[in-house]
Design a protein that fits this description.
CATH topology: Arc Repressor Mutant, subunit A
Distance between the termini: 22 Å
Shape: globular
Number of strands: 2
CATH class: Mainly Alpha
Number of helices: 3
Strand content: 5-15%
Number of domains: 1
Largest sheet: 2 strands, antiparallel
Radius of gyration: 11 Å
Helix content: 40-55%
Length: 68
Amino acid sequence: MIIARVTHDPAVMGGRACIRGMRVTVSTILGLLSTGHSRERVLELYPYLEPEDLDAVLTYAAWRLQRG
């Protein structure tokens, strides 16, 4: 399940949604994408991320919006 790449750990970034337990938040990646950065540019900025991580960010955001 791709959304499993999004983790919440109180010891990492205060429990905010992060990518695979790293100190990269979902909101950081969403912010970059929403301001026009391409997926390729985001992966250049964060070389330890994988394309599937970006898919997970978008899937997670959509899921959160559906929950209200």
